[in-house]
Amino acid sequence: xxxxxxxxxxxxxxxxxxxxxxxxxxxxxxxxxxxxxxxxxxxxxxxxxxxxxxxxxxxxxxxxxxxxxxxxxxxxxxxxxxxxxxxxxxxxxxxxxxxxxxxxxxxxxxxxxxxxx
Length: 117
Hints:
This protein is mainly alpha-helical. It has helices spanning 4-20, 33-81, 105-111; strands at residues 91-92, 98-99.
């Protein structure tokens, strides 16, 4: 009979303890906490960025005709430049001019990556 009292006390506390335990959620059910956090973060960023993106869209639509007029000149310029790796970095002179020197054939050979076969 001395065991009955503590056993009754332990058994009476078990349902209360069992109610506090949360069963584990199945792994394939829904998003994980990290995925939910990332979704909330990106939603917040989109909400914050939406006004700036709208304003940028309006500004681009205003300058679109001018950009269309520049397109042929830009195509000609890029065709003339060929590859930017063929040039040294620009240098600003004291008088404000910007000098962009083309690399010599020797400099281009030195810059070329060596390929081992």
